[in-house]
Amino acid sequence: MQMQTLTLRGGVPSARRAAPPQASSAHLAASGPCLLRVPRSLRRRRPRSLRASASLEQEVKEVAPAPSGKSSQATRRDVRNIAIVAHVDHGKTTLVDSMLRQAKVFRDNQVVQERIMDSNDLERERGITILSKNTSITYKGTKINIIDTPGHSDFGGEVERVLNMVEGVLLVVDSVEGPMPQTRFVLKKALEFGHAVVVVVNKIDRPTARPEFVVNSTFELFIELNATDEQCDFQTVYASGIKGKAGLDPENLADDLGPLFEAILRCIPEPRIEKDGALQMLVSNTEYDEHKGRIAIGRLHAGELQRGMEVKVCTPDDSCRVAKVSELFVYQNFSRVPVESVGAGDICAVCGMSDIMIGETIADKVTGTPLPTIKVEEPTVRMSFSINTSPFVGREGKYVTSRNLRDRLYRELERNLAMKVEDGETADTFLVSGRGTLHLTILIENMRREGYEFMIGPPKVINKTVDGKTLEPYEIAAVEVPEEYMGSVVELLGKRRGQMVNMEASGPEGTTLLKYKIPTRGLIGLRNAILTASRGRAILNTIFDSYGPWAGDLSSRDQGSLVAFEDGSTTSYALLNAQERGVLFVQPGQDVYKGQIVGIHQRPGDLAINVCKKKAATNVRSNKETTVVLDEPLSYSLDDCIEFIQEDELVEVTPASIRMCKNPKISKKK
């Protein structure tokens, strides 16, 4: 039998592994096959071979003969399960939009909004993906289940949670920026799972695109992450997600995404299943519906799941309970479709289990056994949540008691695996840990929109003690900054104990990419400082690296706070004098209370001021009232307030307002 020679797509020579010469797009289109990664249990039984391009004539193909008394191993030829992973703003959701449109998911006259997968209000407002979401399309008779994942490092737990549902990933990389910190994180996780990777160089239509550099950098990243030879032989597809075009050559794109769909069918392995095995489904996600209750979502690993059947729900600690499947759904196009049964290898949604949790296994009632549970990385940042104790409590919120707050926080743990909640020192205080300040800020924003009132303390890093030494989390910070502002940014990072790892030119626009290893606590408040130093032109991206030795003390804020002297309503007369002391947060006619932070002091240390003072009335007449000219007050968002506050300060969060105040439990620093 004559063996074909597989050429490396987009490979480059490396000091560790020599890359074969790059194949032309015509050869790639003609040859088609990608390497089949054979399971370790089968590697001794047969030599490595090349998998032929996908044939849809049969749905299930036997892979290995089954030992006597055991279920047969098989693959489903009519299904592909993929996750789309990338760094933030590299175009994942926009690419999914084009895939859905070209798969005729929507009617020709149907009005479809941009980034349709970002259905959450917060996602659309911030322009980022926060939650992983499922959809599917059908291409040439093959069902392709697609999972859109977040790109921000704080939501890495969402990516880790869904990777066990798929057999391959589309790694989307920007044609100008190339691999970024989150690209490294998601690729590392995909390679650890042994998944096949198709690299999509997106935004290829940008004037400053540099596809050759991006492919070379991506290949080097594979080498650094100790990818196998089969994983390094990745297929590269060049695409413009917003225009809905793709191709195997950056200079010759097709009029649609056909080359991308073909690469998915050719290079992503079919789901490997136990055709006649006992039922096993790992719950990787949960949703809630007002009518159907809790919905469990996961990939069926073995057996067949039917509507109305009784199953066994197994927890990681081997305790089991019996439940019944009331309704069963599969993902078809952009909706859930009810079905009577689901075969192994497909992704489905199950109703009827009100207490099911992520990480549990839906198994056969008689012979079912649990699958390994989902493990995610530990949180690195902690914040305290407590009930609102300000004089304005209850004015705007619906849920204000500690019981309401406790129930809501522990309910968040049912879906958010990367978060932890602990009871604090008092009955009305809770410690919430997450991957970063943005991870916790999204929870806070969702809670205030649901009608909760509470107070939050400043973010603190979670340290570890190993062999009597204190270790703190470090992150890799990548800053893209124009050359004229590089000095100010380098000075800022140095003050926060950052150590430069790399510095290189980034694109032809005269920007420089700085990479620093910096303590996580040094990143708190850094984003606003860098934007101020660079006139808003710098871009900061971070990713967790490792735990390292304690870097020492560092100061994150040089200026103090202006604190209200008494309760009352602010006046123009008082604010005119107060604005000489610093920058104010309040405007005339606004209610404030004693201890509320109303501005930023221009010097270190706090200053108590009277912003409610009224002009004394006299019997002296004036021909004209004095015109008061006030500066525009500074408006801080929730993210800004969390980064601004110090150890002895709190953020008061209500559905209509966000205020900052001094913590009455901590004595004022002298």
Protein described:
The chain is an alpha+beta fold and 670 residues long. The protein is 20% helix and 31% strand. The chain is built from 15 helices and 38 strands. The protein has an 8-stranded antiparallel sheet, with no helix packed on it. The chain has a 7-stranded mixed sheet with strand order 4-5-3-6-7-8-9, with helices on both faces. It is globular and about 95 Å long. The N and C termini lie far apart (84 Å). Residues 1-33 and 35-71 have low confidence and may be disordered.
Number of helices: 15
What does the overall shape look like?
Answer: globular
Could you estimate the helical fraction of the residues in percent? 10-25%
Query: Any idea what the radius of gyration is?
Result: 28 Å
Low-confidence stretches: 1-33, 35-71
Structural class: alpha+beta
Largest sheet: 8 strands, antiparallel
Strand content: 25-35%
> What is the number of E strands?
38
Strands side by side in the biggest sheet: 15-14-20-11-12-19-16-17
Let me know the average pLDDT: 79
First-residue to last-residue Cα separation = 84 Å
Biased composition (Low complexity): 13-26
Pfam families: BipA_C, EFG_C, GTP_EFTU, GTP_EFTU_D2
Biased composition (Basic residues): 40-49
Region (Disordered): 1-75
